[in-house]
Protein 1
Amino acid sequence: MFSGIVEEAARVTAAERRDGNVDLTVKCSFGEELHIDQSVAHNGVCLTVVSLNTDGTYTVTAIQETLDRSNLGDLKPGDEVNLERSMVMNGRLDGHIVQGHVDTTAVCTDIEEVDGSRYYKFEYEVSPEMAAKGYMTVEKGSVTVNGVSLTVCDSERSSFRVAIIPYTFEHTNFKQIKPGTRVNIEFDIIGKYLARLAELSQGC
């Protein structure tokens, strides 16, 4: 479980496809603190550390299901990826409850600078089936974009905007996002549970 508070935007040093999987090798400041089998969110996707390398990097594996639902397959050496280690349960929840299970991808369609901050607009494909499962945003609700916990504004049927303050811009890979960039989206788990409860209640 994660909180959506990114620890570091780290560099991908290698991305190797093996059959249907992709091995991502990453260099970060806390690499020496990691251990095999530890969970780390990469652009919001929970992945398991499978190897620790002698150069201070570590490697994780993204399976085909993950590649189909996320932008991890787009990553190449030199790209930045947002990292967050799993949440410490005796700490403060500064973001919101994030599972690290990306639901879909969205595309940045507009960036507007307002009083030193930036508003990013994202659009995603939506269907009645997705909406019925709670794959949606609500005004002032929570959403995770590339692993960053954010508050929704201008929520529409298939799009939403988020405001990015300068600190978040500088310390995450939001500084690399431009119109046309594909990002990972995890919708709020609370909405998914409510949608499931509503579905089950209809059969009672």
Protein 2
Amino acid sequence: MSPSTRQASLRARHSLGLAVVIAAGSLVAGCGKHEAAPEILGEVNNEYVTTDEFLHQIKTRGGADLRGQTREDFKQWLLAELVDRKLLLQEARRCSIRPNRDDVRIRIKEMGARGWEDAERAQVLNVEDDLWEQAQIDGLLRRELPPIRNPSAREVKAYVQAHPEVFARPAQFLLRQIVVHSAAMVDKAEAMLMDGETFEETAVRLGGRQRVSALGPSWMGQDDVPPEVWAAAVGARWRRIVGPVASEYGFHLFRVEGRREAGPVEPEVATIRARKRIVQERRQKLVEALLARVRRGAVIKIDRAAVAAL
């Protein structure tokens, strides 16, 4: 759910019978001025919301570098998400939904956790906990949500007509690229590619995914790539290696393998996308109904000043 949608949902909660207590610092031992962030930001039915987990979620959701009002809006959205997550986890425990942790560890292995560098291994515990909690929520939703009716052809057609902005395709490039994270590796990568190695082979030879990323081929719009890469792609010659182009992600070497002008997506693509969006929207309404039920009688205490200080 987007931050704007989440904020609209937050405004509607007052009519759902939610008992919310705003505690301006009273949840933290030793009230008054704090040189460091308090450990406790609030409670959800006597279960703590900690500063550590809030900051962890900011980082994993990609909000660590946000500043100003954008960061404040993101924090409010994330706070609502975290409260909802705790309510659903509490309901899952009440229903005795306890997934096997070994299944979660298998998922981590499939994600490549065993190939992480030592510096990344410290994050594995958080990843395991996050996935285990999500497995509990997924189990609850499978149990509590009724089957979602698939949309008819008429409903799909009406949805496409009512949401033309969703089914407009921006201008795109089909890019195959490699991103290296050291200027010293650029010459090596260029030489390997000029010798006929594939982008994937070059990435492996230069050190694997920890140091090099091979991406594509993928259709990319202007919002999908750094602006420096987009600007270089606009003037790129067909199937010629371009770069290195520096961005915040590293040094990009890429090749343009296709171009598509802006326009409507193909009818079959629009149909698939519309069906998926209709099902997602119907599912979200069912999830909101479940959340409304578990919110009734819930007691939530939030230290707003502490959240604002993070």
